[in-house]
Amino acid sequence: MQKILIFTFFVLISVTTAYASPFTGGQNTGHTTREHVNQTQHEAGFFALQYSILLRNVNLAQRAMRSKMSTLGHEIKTHPNGQSFWFFMLFSFLYGIIHALGPGHGKSIVFSYFLSRKGTLLKGVIMGHLLTAVHTLSAIVIVLGAYFLLDLKGSHALTSASEPLKVTSYYLIIGLGIFILLHALYEAVVRIRTNGSVKKEADNKGLITISIISGLVPCPGAALLLSFALSLNILTTGLLGALFFTMGMGITTSLFGIISIHSRKILMHVAGKSSTAIAVLHTSFSVIAGFAIIATGWLLVATS
Fold it and tell me: Considering the entire predicted model, what is its pTM?
């Protein structure tokens, strides 16, 4: 049963990577017919179809929450100290949780990183929250900079001011994937020549580096939230909402890291005490992680 669950989750991660663009992925633009559903199920497979349905539901939930937050925002403008402020924070937090379930590269990066390295639950939580914090902060800096320095508002603030940062970050993600892939192959060669074992653990330096580089891509959800707050002249509320939004996203992203850590432990346990089996699994995980991160970066470049 555990093997089935792990296999299912790997399929979901693969589909998530395919939907990796944080601006364009996974939105349904028309009505789904029964024939289209059957054709999609035949072409993409059962798990991919179920996940695409999940993505549609996530998008619908986000729209509903944005609508409610819009109402609360107008109420806050009229009554700044009322209950609407606290409900706005609550919905910002829940919006962050749901938003992180949708298309995005953060989950793929965190999952792949801990697939290639032995990690602890604490490090999984730290990386999930750190990557998310940088992801949100980059959007805040761009939106505020574009608003106050370039006099741009709404979506123009993000699309006009963030393009160089996005493209640079995408290529850095590809570079990280190449480094992880080449390092995995190097370790395999060293292990074969020395007949030894290499136990790679997630270190703080690598964790922070990957979190910062991956998080440089500005978060569209945080940008929308802050742009809306600026349009109502409730900047402080928008910044606090972005903080709660970040905490919600961090929880979901960290969960993917924790699942990856546990999946790796289970598969290593299945390998038993055989040093050869453990070495093969370790190299395989690292190579898969490298290719997954390269594919994520490439898809982000292709869809930017």
Answer: 0.71
